[in-house]
Design a protein that fits this description.
two-stranded antiparallel sheet, signal, Starch-binding associating with outer membrane, cell outer membrane, 21 helices
Length: 573
């Protein structure tokens, strides 16, 4: 009986299948074909998806460069609940236990290539659309190439030798693309080519805030050229500084400066507040949001670990300024940096800041016990707000956080964050790129007014740095460089001044380590830093930078395995 039922059932199904051609010809529900996706409306959605990768963030492998650029530069300690809390970040900071099988490095690599894949997907579909049907085709192509170049730029800084995949490579061929198909310099040229196309194609203004425009592309092109100008050998030594690339940096930054679209904010603080985001100083920023119809909005998840442990916040005490960084903000009686002896005296208390000349950018960048937190004179930062001050000291980072009563603040238990934008490129950066290029071209006299304009703005950025009585919270003294009066503006001195200024201006923003590698001084600088700082912080006792290795992360072992050993490991690993 069971056999007969089985035969009848099979026969019935056969009749059904062979007689219902229309059923078989229907497209599966919930699946779109390429033809259906390749419409202007749907391609626009693909473009937005590529942009969204800028904000697809997580604290374990953040888009913000703070774990990669601050912890590895001597500007910050990891923080948190001891060295075992986010242990991978401890490895970044000390270099000692870095390995090629660290999972978070593999995750970072993967996330960047997911972002690149979204740009490539959009580009492939844009290429398939007739411009007559989509008038913005070339603009969107330029936007996607700009974004793709940004993601490749970040990968290049972290891993040096990376596979370059564009929209012409079929997915099934990805596994055959080597990370050494192009040399390091050729990879820079590929990235530069992307930004150059974007700069030539994008409009001056591009509809919604956050979309790439010509000036964003010109600025990023200048940045890529500046990095590429410092040519490295296989061992990561800087062997040449390309003058042609530096000359183009000067020309591009001049275009951005002369465009009239950007300028320095009157107060440095306006770069780090929700209410003043997308200001005239912001050139390219991640556009975060909240109350946008999603569960938690597009919050800055990369900063979620970096709030204090007090009741108003609650977690997690990461990203703590180093003693070395805090000390570096001291100035002499002329208001100039104390290049030689800044680290011989520690700044720790409010009285220390009132008794010693300091650059006000210290109070904009670092939370110090006893002083107002984030410009609120009645909200005083205390040492116990730190999670483990006995390990990491009592300083914390300020720029990426917001006050608990800020409209852009939101708790995502047990963490918290905000919808405050994160700047990727600001106008102050453009000014200092130009100054750096001029100095390396032997035109240091032209760099002088650029550096002084940054210092003048710093000197005038004290209005928010007051206590409840309205008195200044530090003895703020910043002077400009005046050759023949307070300095001798030689090429060597100008280079030292430029490099110091970059540290002050972008403290705790994650750029410092990449500056040190670009200049070819990472090993000397960091081992000198460790020699002193490990006497202050026990967690650094084994820290050591290995020259010709630690300039870059290792290519993740999982990626080498995925490529069936096609990928070649970075030198030294």
């Amino acid at each position: 009986m069971k056999t007969m039922q089985y035969i009848l059932t099979c026969c019935s199904l056969s009749i059904l299948l062979f007689s219902c051609d229309s059923f078989l010809d229907e497209n599966p529900k919930g699946v779109l074909s390429n033809e259906q996706l390749n419409t202007p409306e749907n391609v626009e959605k693909m473009v937005i998806a590529a942009y969204s990768s800028l904000g697809n963030d997580h604290y374990t492998e953040p888009n913000s460069p703070w774990p990669y650029g601050d912890l590895r530069s001597g500007d910050a300690y990891k923080g948190g609940a001891g060295t075992g809390d986010m242990q991978e970040f401890h490895f970044y900071e000390t270099f000692t236990y870095l390995r090629d099988d660290i999972g978070l490095l593999d995750s970072k690599w993967y996330k960047e290539y997911v972002a690149i894949s979204r740009a490539n997907n959009a580009l492939a579909r844009l290429n398939a659309i007739d411009e007559a049907d989509f008038s913005k085709k070339m603009i969107r192509i330029a936007e996607m190439r700009f974004l793709r170049a940004h993601y490749y730029f970040e990968l290049k800084l972290l891993f040096k030798q990376i596979p370059f995949i564009d929209e012409t490579v079929p997915v099934e061929e990805y596994i055959n693309v080597s990370n050494v198909e192009f040399t390091s310099q050729q990879l820079w040229d590929k990235i530069i080519e992307e930004f150059r196309f974007a700069a030539q194609t994008l409009p001056d203004n591009n509809a919604e805030v956050g979309r790439a425009n010509k000036w964003m592309a010109k600025s990023y092109l200048a940045k890529a050229l500046l990095y590429a100008a410092y040519e490295q050998d296989e061992k990561h030594n800087v062997t040449n500084i390309n003058k042609d690339k530096l000359t183009e940096v000067v020309n591009l930054t001049n275009e951005v400066i002369n465009s009239g679209k950007y300028g320095l904010n009157a107060d440095y603080a306006d770069n780090f507040l929700c209410e003043t985001e997308n200001s005239k100083e912001s050139i390219f920023a991640v556009q975060h949001s909240r109350n946008d119809g999603t569960l938690h909005g597009r919050l800055d998840w990369g900063a979620m670990l970096n709030y204090p442990m007090n009741p108003e916040y609650g977690c997690c005490g990461f990203h703590q300024a180093s003693q070395n960084l805090v000390n570096s903000f001291q100035t002499d009686d002329k208001g100039l940096p104390k290049f030689a002896d800044f680290n011989s005296k520690n700044l720790n208390t409010p009285d220390d800041l009132l008794q010693n000349n300091v650059d006000p950018r210290l109070n904009h960048s670092v939370a110090i016990p006893g002083l107002p937190y984030k410009y609120n004179p009645e909200f005083i930062f205390e040492a116990w707000w730190n999670r483990q001050p006995e390990v990491y000291g009592a300083f914390m980072s300020l720029k990426e956080v917001v006050l608990p009563d800020c409209p852009c603040f939101e708790k995502v238990n047990p963490f918290m964050s905000s919808s405050k934008n994160r700047d990727i490129i600001r106008y102050d950066d453009v000014l200092l790129w130009k100054a750096e290029a001029l100095i390396e071209l032997g035109r240091e006299s032209e760099a002088l007014p650029l550096i002084n304009s940054i210092r003048e703005r710093a000197a005038n950025s004290t209005a928010r740095l007051v206590d409840v009585q309205g008195d200044p919270t530090g003895k703020f003294v910043v002077g400009t460089y005046q050759p023949g009066i307070n300095c001798t503006w030689t090429n060597d001195f100008a280079r030292q001044a430029l490099r110091w200024e970059r540290r002050m201006e972008f403290a705790m923003e994650g750029f410092r380590f990449f500056d040190l590698v670009r200049w070819g001084i990472a090993a000397e600088y960091l081992n000198s830093y460790f020699a002193v700082e490990k006497t202050r912080r026990e967690h650094l006792r084994e820290a050591k930078f290995t020259k010709n290795r630690d300039e870059y992360f290792p290519i993740p072992k999982q990626q080498i395995n995925f490529s069936k050993k096609l990928y070649v490991q970075n030198y030294g690993w």
